[in-house]
Amino acid sequence: MTTAGDIMHRGAQWIPEGETLDRAAQLMRDLNVGALPISDQNERLCGILTDRDIVVGCVAMGHDPAKVTAGEMAQGTPRWIDASADVSEVLHEMQEHQIRRLPVIDDKRLVGMISEADLAQHLTDDQIATWAESVYARTAGHH
Predict the structure, then answer these.
(1) How far is the C-alpha of 53 from the C-alpha of 117, rounded, in Å?
(2) Whole-number CA gyration radius for the chain
(3) pLDDT tens-place string over residues 29-61
């Protein structure tokens, strides 16, 4: 069985909820990632911040990224998967919630992230076709 822990990329880093968006953008640049899990003061997942969130939710609104925090941008209930979960569960979670990045948690700690690219490398052709159809069919026309 291939697990979430097998396919994730390790070394994912939290951004604390009190950290500002300009710092988040710098961290994304340094790590070469497009999303960061947001942690509360207890290092528990409280959201995910994407580069698009910073641009659309802050900069395009005329707000100063040096004054808006990651926690202010955290929306909804964050989705995550246990490191021991099967790849099919990862696929289901990403399809069901129309998400493209999924934090991997082991013993209540962030151990990695799974992106679309990580997932695609470990799926069968049929799984990829079904997944792509479910994720992109719903987003067509919502650009």
Answers:
(1) 20
(2) 15
(3) 998 888 899 998 888 888 999 999 999 999 999
**Of the candidates 38, 35, 56, which has an alpha carbon nearest to the alpha carbon of residue 47?**
38
DSSP code of 61? G
User: What digits encode the pLDDT tens for the residues 72-111?
Assistant: 988 767 899 999 999 989 989 988 888 888 999 998 888 9
Instruction: Please say whether the beta carbons of 71 and 47 come within 8 A.
Output: yes
At residue 8, the 3 state secondary structure works out as coil
Helices first, then strands: H and E counts in the chain: 7, 7
This prediction has a pTM of 0.78
Cα distances from 28 to residues 14, 54, 105, in angstroms, run 11, 11, 20
Residue in this structure with the two tokens 């069901």, named with its chain if needed: 96
